[in-house]
């Protein structure tokens, strides 16, 4: 009788220790899960552009020199400038380079474009400012998404053009 009680007691101790070890390993794995490396960083935009009036269309469409792109990071308060210097033609359907190869397609409205190989943001740009000799396209405010979760980081990009055929 004493041996059966002793066996039951030993079995309960072994079972309890086994359960504690399982719980400890689960907790440890959960802790390691939070320390994983970042797998994906994306930027998404809320505003997808604006429609151009007829006056602004007349000013915007034509031959331009794409001079540079500036990326702004609002949280770190930094900017990066990339010089491009490529002759382009802006029209209603898109933006073409000097070889008449389309480098940007129209996106939903006139004056809003999605560039194919300009950057890795995969966002739209809309014509923001048009002067007699300069034009600026701007991306909407971009929200940074890390591993599927929205962060507080914000960014934007601007593309600058200089008029080619000034009269």
Q: What does this protein look like?
A:
It comes from Elizabethkingia miricola. This is Lipocalin-like domain-containing protein. The protein has 167 residues and is of the alpha+beta class. It is built from two helices and ten strands; from the N terminus they run H-E-H-E-E-E-E-E-E-E-E-E. An eight-stranded antiparallel barrel has the order 2-3-4-5-6-7-8-10. The radius of gyration is 29 Å and the shape is rod-shaped. Mean pLDDT is 79; it is low at 27-35.
Task: Name the shape in a single word.
Answer: rod-shaped
How far is the N terminus from the C terminus?
Answer: 111 Å
Please work out how many helical segments DSSP would assign: 2
Order of helices and strands: HEHEEEEEEEEE
The top level CATH class name of the largest domain: Mainly Beta
The gyration radius over C-alpha positions equals 29 Å
User: How much is the average pLDDT?
Assistant: 79
Helix content: 10-25%
Strand percent estimate: over 45%
* CATH-assigned fold name of the largest domain: Lipocalin
Q: Any chance you could write out the topology, listing elements then pairs?
A:
Layout (H helix, E strand, L loop, with lengths): L1 H32 L7 E5 L8 H7 L1 E12 L4 E13 L3 E4 L4 E6 L1 E7 L8 E7 L3 E5 L3 E5 L2 E15 L4
Antiparallel strand pairs: 1-9, 2-3, 2-10, 3-4, 4-5, 5-6, 6-7, 7-8, 8-10, 9-10
């Amino acid at each position: 009788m004493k041996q059966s009680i002793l066996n039951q007691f030993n079995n309960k101790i072994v079972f309890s220790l086994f359960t504690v070890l399982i719980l400890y390993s689960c907790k440890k794995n959960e802790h390691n899960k939070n320390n994983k490396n970042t797998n994906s960083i994306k930027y998404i935009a809320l505003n997808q552009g604006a429609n151009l009036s007829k006056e602004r269309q007349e000013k915007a469409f034509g031959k331009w020199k794409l001079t540079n792109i500036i990326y702004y990071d609002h949280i770190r308060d930094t900017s990066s400038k990339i010089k491009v210097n490529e002759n382009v033609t802006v029209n209603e359907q898109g933006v073409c380079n000097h070889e008449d190869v389309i480098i940007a397609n129209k996106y939903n409205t006139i004056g809003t474009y999605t560039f194919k190989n300009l950057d890795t943001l995969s966002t739209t740009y809309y014509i923001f400012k048009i002067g007699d000799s300069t034009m600026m396209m701007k991306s909407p405010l971009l929200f940074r998404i890390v591993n599927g979760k929205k962060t507080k980081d914000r960014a934007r990009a601007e593309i600058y053009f200089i008029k080619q055929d000034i009269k």
